[in-house]
């Protein structure tokens, strides 16, 4: 090979490898990966694609895919009932604040409540898994707290403390205090209660417990495992709250509620 031929070959090889490197850089920029950083492997050994965040309550397998059980009829019907009652509460709020001047903060809370109502309705229409039920009831819980804030701001009262939902029925809204209460045949324990239920217990009356159909009998919701996903959206974020911990730990725990929240592993966890 002549000297000229060797130089031509060197130039050609230099251009070839330069084109390959430039192509890798363009592919890296298109995929959002910096060409100077390694691509994280997946179980299949290919490039990893970062998945979008999942709604509250979802989990992922080791393969990065969401895993869940189908949406139960009990959770679906309970959510539909809660959305309806929340819509009624929003209409009542309109009448409650008529004639009061709402501040920007009050209007912001109002918008949050209305958004929660719409998000819950849309989410239920597309819900296919039980963890989506958990996501929806968490939205409703936040919406009801926003309603409480609107009322307080409109009436010039102190903002309500962020507390767990009423134990007797989360659709009652945020609790206002802990009350001493004993289920039939059980020990007395402190549970979070809304203003209405706290007043009823204070007068010696029974609280308004949410009863659900289980076969041919109506039982408190916390005794029905089919309502687990629904209940976890309301109470799951509050399991470290002192009032909830007293209910689910030690000799005073409410066994059905603890199992509902997945806190008791008896081999048949919901």
Describe the protein in words.
The structure is a single chain. This protein is mainly alpha-helical and 270 residues long. The strands form three sheets. It has a two-stranded antiparallel sheet with strand order 1-2. Strand 3 and strand 4 form a beta hairpin. Helix 2 packs antiparallel against helix 3, helix 2 packs parallel to helix 4 and helix 3 runs antiparallel to helix 4. The radius of gyration is 28 Å and the shape is globular.
What's the quick description here?
With 270 residues, this protein is mainly α. Helix content is 49%, strand content 8%.
Task: Jot down its keywords.
single chain, 270 residues, two-stranded antiparallel sheet
Could you outline the blueprint of secondary structure elements for this entry?
Elements: H1 3-31, E1 59-60, E2 66-67, H2 73-96, H3 104-126, H4 130-155, E3 177-181, E4 189-193, H5 195-202, E5 211-214, E6 217-220, H6 228-235, H7 242-248, H8 255-260
Helix pairs in contact: 2-3, 2-4, 3-4, 4-6
CA radius of gyration is: 28 Å
Strand content: 5-15%
Amount of helix: 40-55%
Enumerate the spans where pLDDT stays under 50 for 5 or more consecutive residues.
16-58, 60-66, 264-270
Number of strands: 6
Task: Give the rounded overall mean pLDDT.
Answer: 77
How far the N terminus sits from the C terminus, by CA atoms, comes to 78 Å
Order of helices and strands: HEEHHHEEHEEHHH
- With strands numbered from the N-terminus, the spatial order across the biggest sheet is 1-2
Sheet with the most strands, sense and barrel status: 2 strands, antiparallel
Discrete helix count: 8
Structural class: mainly alpha
Q: Characterize the overall form.
A: globular
């Amino acid at each position: 090979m002549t000297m000229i031929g060797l130089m031509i070959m060197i130039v050609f090889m230099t251009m070839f490898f330069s084109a390959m490197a430039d192509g890798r850089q363009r592919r890296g920029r298109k995929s959002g990966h910096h060409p100077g950083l390694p691509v994280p492997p997946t179980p299949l050994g290919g490039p990893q694609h970062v998945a979008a965040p999942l709604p509250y309550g979802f989990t992922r397998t080791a393969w990065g895919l969401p895993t869940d059980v189908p949406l139960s009829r009990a959770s679906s019907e309970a959510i539909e009932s809660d959305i309806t009652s929340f819509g009624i509460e929003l209409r009542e709020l309109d009448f409650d604040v008529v004639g009061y001047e709402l501040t920007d903060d009050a209007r912001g809370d109002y918008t949050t409540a209305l958004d929660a109502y719409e998000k819950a309705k849309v989410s239920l229409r597309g819900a296919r898994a039980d963890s989506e039920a958990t996501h929806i009831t968490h939205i409703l819980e936040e919406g009801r707290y926003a309603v409480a804030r609107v009322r307080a701001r409109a009436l010039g009262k102190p903002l309500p403390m962020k507390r767990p939902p009423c134990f007797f029925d989360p659709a009652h809204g945020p609790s206002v205090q802990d009350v001493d209460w004993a289920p039939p045949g059980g020990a007395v324990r402190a549970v979070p209660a809304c203003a209405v239920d706290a007043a009823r217990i204070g007068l010696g009356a029974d609280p308004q417990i949410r009863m659900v159909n289980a076969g041919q009998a109506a039982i408190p919701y916390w005794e029905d495992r089919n309502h687990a996903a629904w209940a976890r959206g309301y109470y799951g974020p509050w399991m470290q709250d002192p009032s909830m911990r007293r209910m689910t730990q030690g000799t005073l725990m409410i066994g059905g509620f603890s199992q509902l929240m997945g806190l008791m592993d008896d081999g048949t966890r919901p």
